[in-house]
């Protein structure tokens, strides 16, 4: 019989089951929040790396010639953890020919930890709003709490100081002085110290520092402790002002919307004096509502206003439900809450994928990449893998079933890990043992798989942009037992002016970011496995570090200017009843700042990415 003709609209054949590569490097990617499509985010990473290989083919990275990626295609393989399940990945080859180091893999597999369906439809906009409003009290709670409480949060402030000091040309304090303060703070939590210094205040901590070793050079250490507390208090005041500014801006926008609506009604009912006088006038005469209404001399047509309000409401509802709702799910640590079940399922999905990759003897090296909320999920998955091995072999977790020693790099982009810890993880119980148990069971980068015998095994590189409000430097993950094991924070600027949305995804276009990721994946650069040696023959990890990156002072100036706008409007509304001229000047200053910000934002958008791959 003749073969039947294949119809033109027939679907493409499924990807073939993958052949067994002798050895390969696995890249496991955790996507960020929102209604992400399967394969879309991992494809973005592969496309960026592929594009970079073409752009950089004539420019060596880390002194190594750049080759092109080849053989990029989708593949399937059976799960080594879950029976009857198939897993997909994108395979690529990177062969430098004669320049290829002996024993260095040429095959690469890109896996995606796809968790979006698990979070879909689990949060409502209303529940998210209620949940967000509760978080605004966090700065007041933390700044009033005893110095002994929220220990990881306090230590994070000291780690930030320490990291900045180490990057300075002339450090103000030595590593040993920082470590001494951390050791004393850790001892301050012990039962006998809790009994001796019951309140746990900072003054009690200073007294404990003096009593601990009175023969030492106390003054410098006391000064360092005071500097630590000042930095912490200032950071809390900054957090408080940021949250108050956001609340004030939302309030002003709400009042302006009401004013615009009333103005529209007043215009439409201009000939109906009884409605205007009896119904509207009491509202129109209220200050500062009257003043804000006057800011909208020409209200839009009712249908236009209704359309804009409807579109804004739908967009905001979707953003709260699909994006912020994912954060709400992931940060539900209360095990009696239904949302915690979803968090557990997401963690299990990522852990199963990691176990699948690690159980293949042909996988010689693993790089974990996380974007946005995916970085927090990836971090918890790595800690969970460590707990699995710790439970199997407490004495030597690296000798347990999971080959955690093959994990080489952990790369995070736009990570909210410190913000998550600040708002949702810094709860402190009233029992000393509870605080210790939570910290010890959870782990940090001083525990497996990040470190072995207080020596770093995974290089954690965190790229962040100050304009990206989701991202930030990561200090809360630093180790209590091995303080020098810190996250390698690399600050970048994606756009000239802070454009929060584009900046959040701009890392995949950033030439510096993608070049560093390319070097880590394909050249094995910046690895703690085989670091350069100093003159004494000891590993010199400082030469491997990529941070602190470059800070954009222009964005700081622009950000301060825009942050002043709601406060200037509030000040103008208070002045209007007393000195209308001063109120008008203040308001005009606010409007000028808004106009300048809009022009700068437009110019930044037209200019595009400040350091694009292309």
Describe the structure.
The chain is of the alpha/beta class and 614 residues long. Helices cover 51% and strands 10% of the residues. The chain contains 20 helices and ten strands. The strands form two sheets. Strands 2-3-4-1-5-6-9-10 form an eight-stranded mixed β-sheet, sandwiched between helices. A two-stranded antiparallel ribbon has the order 7-8. The two termini are 54 Å apart.
The profile of the biggest β sheet is: 8 strands, mixed
Distance between the termini: 54 Å
Kindly provide the radius of gyration, computed on alpha-carbon positions and rounded to a whole number of angstroms. Answer: 28 Å
Strand content: 5-15%
Strand order of the largest sheet: 2-3-4-1-5-6-9-10
> Shape, please?
globular
What is the strand tally? 10
Order of helices and strands: EHEEEHHHHHHHHHHHHEHEHHEEEEHHHH
The number of helical elements comes to 20
Structural class: alpha/beta
Rounded mean pLDDT score: 82
Uncertain segments are 1-18, 272-277, 283-289, 295-299
- Helical residues, percent: 40-55%
């Amino acid at each position: 019989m003749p073969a039947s003709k294949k119809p033109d609209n027939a679907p493409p054949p499924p990807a073939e089951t993958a052949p067994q590569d002798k050895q390969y490097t696995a890249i496991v990617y955790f996507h960020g929040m929102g209604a992400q499509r399967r394969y879309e985010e991992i494809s973005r990473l592969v496309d960026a790396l592929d594009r970079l290989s073409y752009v950089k083919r004539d420019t060596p990275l880390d002194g190594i010639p750049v080759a092109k990626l080849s053989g990029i295609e989708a593949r399937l393989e059976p799960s080594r953890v879950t029976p009857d399940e198939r897993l997909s990945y994108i395979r690529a080859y990177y062969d430098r020919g004669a320049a290829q180091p002996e024993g260095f893999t040429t095959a690469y597999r890109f896996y995606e930890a796809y968790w979006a369906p698990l979070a879909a439809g689990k949060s409502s906009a209303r529940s998210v709003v209620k949940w967000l409003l509760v978080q605004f009290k966090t700065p007041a709670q933390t700044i009033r709490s005893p110095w002994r409480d929220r220990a990881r949060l306090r230590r994070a402030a000291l780690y930030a100081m320490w990291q900045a000091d180490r990057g300075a040309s002339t450090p103000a304090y030595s590593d040993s002085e920082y470590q001494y303060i951390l050791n004393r703070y850790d001892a301050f939590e012990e039962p006998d110290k809790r009994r001796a210094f019951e309140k746990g205040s900072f003054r009690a901590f200073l007294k404990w520092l003096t009593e601990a070793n009175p023969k030492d050079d106390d003054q410098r250490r006391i000064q360092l402790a005071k500097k630590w507390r000042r930095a912490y208090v200032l950071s809390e005041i900054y957090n408080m002002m940021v949250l108050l500014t956001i609340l004030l801006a939302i309030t002003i926008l709400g009042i302006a919307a009401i004013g615009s609506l009333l103005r529209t009604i007043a215009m439409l009912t201009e000939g109906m004096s009884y409605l205007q006088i009896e119904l509207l006038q009491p509202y129109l005469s209220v200050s500062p509502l009257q003043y804000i209404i006057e800011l909208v001399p020409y209200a839009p047509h009712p249908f236009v206003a209704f359309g804009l309000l409807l579109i804004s409401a739908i967009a905001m509802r979707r953003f709260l439900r699909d994006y912020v709702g994912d954060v709400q799910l992931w940060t539900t640590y209360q095990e009696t809450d239904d949302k915690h079940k979803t968090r557990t399922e997401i963690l299990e999905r990522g852990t199963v994928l990691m176990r699948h990759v690690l159980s293949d003897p042909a996988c010689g090296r693993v790089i974990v990449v996380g974007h946005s909320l995916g970085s927090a999920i990836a971090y918890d998955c790595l800690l969970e893998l460590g707990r699995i091995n710790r439970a199997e072999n407490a004495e030597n977790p690296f000798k347990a079933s999971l080959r955690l020693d093959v994990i080489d790099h952990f790369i995070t982009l736009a990570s909210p890990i410190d913000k998550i810890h600040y708002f949702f993880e810094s709860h402190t119980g009233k029992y000393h043992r509870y605080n210790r148990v939570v910290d010890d069971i959870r782990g940090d980068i001083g525990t497996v798989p990040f470190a072995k015998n207080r020596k770093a095994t995974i290089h954690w590189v965190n790229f962040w942009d100050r304009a990206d409000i989701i991202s930030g430097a990561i200090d809360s993950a630093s180790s209590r037992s091995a303080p020098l094991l810190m996250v390698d924070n690399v600050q970048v600027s994606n756009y000239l002016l802070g454009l929060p949305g584009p900046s959040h995804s701009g890392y995949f276009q950033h030439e510096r970011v993608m070049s560093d990721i390319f070097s880590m994946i394909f050249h094995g650069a910046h690895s703690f496995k085989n670091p350069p040696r100093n003159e004494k023959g000891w590993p010199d990890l400082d030469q491997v570090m990529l941070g602190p990156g470059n800070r954009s002072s222009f964005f700081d100036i622009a950000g301060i200017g825009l942050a002043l706008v709601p406060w200037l409007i509030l000040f103008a509304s208070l002045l209007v009843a007393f000195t209308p001229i001063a109120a008008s000047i203040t308001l005009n200053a606010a409007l000028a700042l808004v106009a300048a910000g809009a022009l700068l934002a437009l110019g930044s958008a037209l200019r595009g990415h400040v350091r694009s791959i292309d």
